[in-house]
Amino acid sequence: MSFDESMFEHARFRDAKYAKTLVSKIGTLNADRATRIVHVCGTHEDTISRHGLRSLLPSGISLVAGPGCPVCVCAAEDVDFAIEVSRKGHIVATFGDMIRVPSTSSSLIKERAEGADIRIVYRELYRYLVVYDAFRCDLSPGNSRDEHRCT
């Protein structure tokens, strides 16, 4: 097996000289106006806070915690509901990260292993494809909910 330099790219961020160069370049991106960089992951926020990354940024650039990814903001009761729905024979479409999130008694990945029809979707469009596949519905734009023709 051969290794190339890109496999170790993440290690460069631990190099203080490289990090300072990177921060300097970030500072030149929009030097003439305030810039907010929004992240949506709780793990990112933890890393940013733990390592004091906000203090490294030039003035005028701020990091803002967003609403949170589904894993970070989803209550166990919501996962319980999805599991209950799947146990009744319904299809559950979920983002990939959610499949391992524990509920109070199980997880979607455990339910799928036991035969539940739990499908991973990677973008909003795929949710419609799951509905079409399940019901052969006409989901054309402009159709109201009652006008969807399903077979």
Short description:
By secondary structure, the chain is an alpha/beta fold. The chain is built from eight helices and four strands; from the N terminus they run ααβααβααβαβα.
Description:
With 151 residues, the protein is of the alpha/beta class. The protein has eight helices and four strands. It has two domains: 5-68, 3-Layer(aba) Sandwich (Rossmann fold); 72-147, 3-Layer(aba) Sandwich (Rossmann fold), CATH 3.40.50.11740. The strands form two sheets. A two-stranded parallel ribbon has the order 1-2. A two-stranded parallel ribbon has the order 3-4. Helix 7 (108-113) links the parallel strand 3 and strand 4 (118-121).
Short key terms for the protein model shown above:
single chain; 151 residues; alpha/beta; Rossmann fold; 2 domains; two-stranded parallel sheet; 8 helices; elongated
Gyration radius, in Å: 22 Å
**Inertia-based shape:** elongated
Summed over residues and divided by their number, the pLDDT gives a mean of 76
- The overall number of domains is 2
**Could you tell me the strand content as a percent range?**
5-15%
Largest sheet: 2 strands, parallel
Architecture per CATH nomenclature, i.e. the level-2 architecture of the largest domain:
3-Layer(aba) Sandwich
Query: CA-to-CA gap between the ends?
Result: 52 Å
Give me the count of strands: 4
Number of helical elements: 8
